[in-house]
Amino acid sequence: MESLVDSYAIWNLNSHSKEELFEEVAKFLDENHLISERQDLFRELNQRENLGSTMIDDLIAAPHAQSNIFAKNVVIFVSLEDAVELWDGSSAAQYFIFCCLREDITLPAAKQISKILKSFIKDEVKKSLYLGDRELIEKIISG
User: Which superkingdom (predicted)?
Assistant: First the structure.
């Protein structure tokens, strides 16, 4: 079955703050022609972050935005060399599942992304994540 969502993984990124991480993700999206305007991504992600925490489990956050600035629906898994302390004001985060959703996302694509996110709260997946099992993580994000 063909995936309804493009997926990518960026491993061991050296970002020390939310701003640096957002910049790296924007750069990646821009270089891969997946976004129309880099600056709009910062606005979209920060608006969502201001609504409440995007932490989904210990050390795992799911920053997301829904906008037509995205060329496609995209999931980007990012692992950092070191955690960003106080990601949401109280918790550290080291692993991120960026969900970049178009305004016209289909229900099947939304369900695929939901399934990906739910996978990351399973104990066996978290263990694999913490052990750096790239093969499993890349299989999960590919749907």
Answer: Bacteria
